Amino acid sequence: MRALALDAVGGLEHLAVHELPRPELSTPHDVRVRVHAAALNRLDLFVADGLPGVALTFPHIVGADGAGIVDAVGSAVWQVRLGDRVMWNPGLSCGRCAECMAGEESLCGSFRVLGEHRSGSAADYLVLPAENLALVPPGMPWAEAAAFSLATLTAWRMLTTRSALQAGETVLIWGIGGGVSMAALQVAHLLGARAIVTSASDAKLEVARSRGAAETINHASADVVAEVRRLTGGLGADVVVDSIGEARWQQSLRALRRGGRLTVCGATTGPAVTLDLRRLFWRQWSLLGSTLGSRREYAEIVRLAHQGRLWPVVDQVVPFADGPAALGRLRRGEQLGKLVIEVAT
Questions:
Q1: Which fold has domain 2-150+293-342?
Q2: For residue 97, what are the contacts with CB-CB under 8 A and spacing of at least 6?
Q3: pLDDT (mean) for 45-73
Q4: Quick one: residue 245, left, alpha or beta (phi over 0 = left, psi -120 to 50 = alpha)?
Q5: For residue 269, what pLDDT band results from cuts at 50, 70 and 90?
Q6: What is the predicted pLDDT for the residue at 326?
Q7: What is the CATH number of domain 153-289?
Q8: Taken in order 303, 306, 307, 313, is the CA torsion positive or negative?
Q9: Domains of the chain, residue spans
């Protein structure tokens, strides 16, 4: 089968299309999917560059998200049938520990992410546990189905479970245009919150406004903290969604109101930040980390997708061989929504 795979880490120059053996079912609970589309994430760039503490076996297939048709099922599988159109939760857990039994799979000590800790979805075929699969909503195209899971699940957990965002509250979302930030805007709008979004691109801000953003700020030309204060009557945002990290950390803190919640799911500009503990306790901020989500949370966003209430934004669909070039577009931050690889035509 074809697979978009790394033969080493150190950059996208090590990523190419390889011919690899088709994966086979290894447990009675496994399902094999004939992949029709695979979505790219910034995680793929981090994996290509090399992540501390993550040892890969080469060739390593990239990609977390995707969608396709069930091609083979194990003897114990009941959740899906041959021929079903499916997408998947890219988080893999043991299913046996206390965290998994409590329905908090993303806190599992052996939690792994498809495309990061094990070979991923950018291939003709993929084998996954049946419990990770969900039926694609009727009418959802392959590209949108492929783009749905990782970004939407990440944004949903950040805003509902971790931040407990409420109707009428104000949320600041940095860097609109990325998959998670676009999903966070959708989730915030669905929850009835007021979203303030930032970007260095006026074109992206205009699209965000058309998709429900109440206020937009060009962070390349405006003082984001001052603007957030002005837009909130001097109080600051109730919640800040930050996947940028180091470059915007101090601004994220300063944009928070007293008692506000800062939720972080990434560190695209660097992982090292500083914090004045006196400001933390005096302003009574909550600093929250968030990674993907649980099976229960995934079931909820799938339910909302089937109702047409959560639907991903796709930037481009590219041929299989153009995967490395698409990741270059992602690295440069040119995308508005998710980049998708067409695997099967």
A1: Quinone Oxidoreductase; Chain A, domain 1 (3.90.180)
A2: 108, 109, 110
A3: 93
A4: left
A5: confident
A6: 92
A7: 3.40.50.720
A8: positive
A9: 2-150+293-342, 153-289
